[in-house]
Amino acid sequence: MVSIEYSPNSRAHCQKCRGKINSRSVRVCAKGAPVSRSSGYINTYTHAECYTNRKDFTKFWGFRDLEKEDQKRFMTEEQKRQAFPGDYAAEAVAAAAATGLQKRNANAAGSAEEEQPSKKKSKSKSKKPTVLTIVGLKYADACAACGEKVTSVREPENQYDSNAIKVVNSSNRIVGRIKKEDAASLSQTLERIDAINAKLQSKGEQLITDGTILDAGNGYTQSVQVEFKKMAAKTKNLTPKAEGKMTAAVVSEAKSSTSK
């Protein structure tokens, strides 16, 4: 039997990453086979984020005993809407209000442009981040939790695919690799970014791919949102510039290639 629960103490260690399971953190408990006839069953524990045999956490014994926010961490978007419809009703009202405000602002902007026809309309549009698929979770060095920041790194020396791209966490441990179909276009983008960085180096800046894990995954695949950002390159541990942004041309080139 497999159950999900809060760890009552910090004595257990994760069977996947071998790290300590802290008290009150969410863990998965699996009842193992007895060592001998006289001994009882031996339970094994795993961080919920590290559990690779997961398909649907809501089916685990004890899932409904978790707090609301912890339940949401291991639910799909559809499951959240079914389990907590009240939360999404408030979001729908807020979205409708925001849409109405945007329309009013657009009408006001149109009136202002009619009064001043000499001014040109702005053509800049916000680009949506690219969502890609991570595979190979079972063979990864570490597990990535929903919301965790990751980085995409090219692997041209990979013997199986020269376009391979590994996804690493803040500790530089591999959490998976970009799906082959997605990696082909993203690899070309990263190569062009390397050329752009050569020009930006003199300004003490560089472009990077900033990734955010979008879900807990299903044990085999996981979704990651990739954005292209300009960062300061003064030290090895780079930090985002407070107001640094890429030019519209660079953003358009990078994202158009990943969407192909």
In short:
The chain has 260 residues and is α+β, with helices and mostly antiparallel strands.
What's the arrangement of secondary structure elements?
Layout: E1 2-6, E2 26-31, E3 43-47, H1 68-73, H2 77-83, H3 85-115, E4 130-135, E5 149-154, E6 165-168, E7 174-178, H4 180-200, E8 205-213, E9 222-232, H5 248-258
Antiparallel strand pairs: 1-2, 2-3, 4-7, 4-9, 5-6, 5-8, 6-7, 8-9
Helix pairs in contact: 2-3, 4-5
Low-confidence stretches: 118-127, 234-251
The number of helical segments is 5
Main sheet: which strands, in order across? 4-7-6-5-8-9
Q: Helicity, in percent?
A: 25-40%
Question: What is the string of SSEs from the N terminus onward?
Answer: EEEHHHEEEEHEEH
Characterization of the model:
This protein is an alpha+beta fold and 260 residues long. 29% of the residues lie in helices and 22% in strands. Strands 4-7-6-5-8-9 form a six-stranded antiparallel beta barrel. A hairpin with an 8-residue loop joins strand 8 and strand 9. The two termini are 44 Å apart.
